[in-house]
């Protein structure tokens, strides 16, 4: 059975991108259900799939995070990976779906789990906000903070991969991806006209889709007056080429195949001499030693 991709709420389990996208396992109310039941459910997933990758938002409550770590500890297994990338909720849902797409391919569990860290670099996540007064994940200057209290103010924000913040006006623009993407838009309690009518054309997106706003989004962005958006790579062939172009190695601690400098399952990093030997390699982490070769393969994957 393919590696299971789990999320902590149903609204993070986006509809399939293609016919090969595997369904997500939803760990609903993991912090509220009896511990014994959650233990049994996760053990069943491990028995059935061999490995489980739990994609968890940084906006999730501390109780959920503690419960997941408790379950993993009690099961005494390195076959459950807890992955919490620095993405807003919609971007996290997109990443989880990309892993669900890749789970149908011939990738080992360790490479698939490590792929989440690599693919995070290619996700552009942001929002149109009615206020930035409580925005904690993007630097907010004093002037923008003061203007957020003015009636009718709107702000375009990119949280990842590079923080950006602009006040919406005739000349407002946000830097977007330099490769072809689709745009996913989640409407909240705020008009989305600027996102669909201005941002999407300026980012030259190849397609646009809409989805309901994740429940965690207002808490992450600090306001319910928002429309969240995420630009992403939709094609499985491109995702697969990006992942397989990266050098693979074996985790010295648990023996699983990985890409990059950290095993997502056991959290081990390479020994000091290996880290020093690999320090000159280009980002994203794990690309082959020849930087030009890595860039050529990445360019072919994104444009081919």
The side-by-side strand order for the widest beta sheet comes to 7-6-5-10-8-9
Number of strands: 12
Mean pLDDT: 85
| Low-confidence region ranges | 273-300
Task: Summarize the main sheet.
Answer: 6 strands, mixed
Span of the ends, CA to CA: 30 Å
Order of helices and strands: EEHEHEHHEHEEEHEHEHEEHH
Estimated share of beta-strand residues: 15-25%
The helical percent reads 25-40%
Characterize the overall form: globular
Tally of discrete structural domains = 2
The count of helical stretches stands at 10
What is the radius of gyration? 20 Å
Q: Kindly name the structural category.
A: alpha/beta
Give a written overview of the molecule.
Residues 274-295 have a biased composition (Basic and acidic residues). Residues 274-304 are annotated as: Disordered. There is one protein chain. The chain has 304 residues and is an alpha/beta fold. It has 2 domains: 4-122 and 237-303, no CATH class; 124-232, Hypothetical Protein Tm841, Chain: A,domain 3. Helix content is 34%, strand content 18%. It has helices at 35-49, 62-75, 89-102, 109-119, 142-147, 193-202, 217-221, 236-244, 272-277, 291-303; strands at 4-7, 25-26, 52-55, 80-83, 124-129, 155-160, 164-167, 182-187, 207-212, 226-232, 248-250, 257-259. Strands 7-6-5-10-8-9 form a 6-stranded mixed beta sheet, sandwiched between helices. It has a 4-stranded parallel beta sheet with strand order 2-1-3-4, sandwiched between helices. It has a two-stranded antiparallel ribbon with strand order 11-12. Helix 2 (62-75) links the parallel strand 3 and strand 4 (80-83). Helix 1 crosses helix 2 (62-75), helix 3 (89-102) packs antiparallel against helix 4 and helix 8 (236-244) runs antiparallel to helix 10. It is globular and about 55 Å long. The two termini are 30 Å apart.
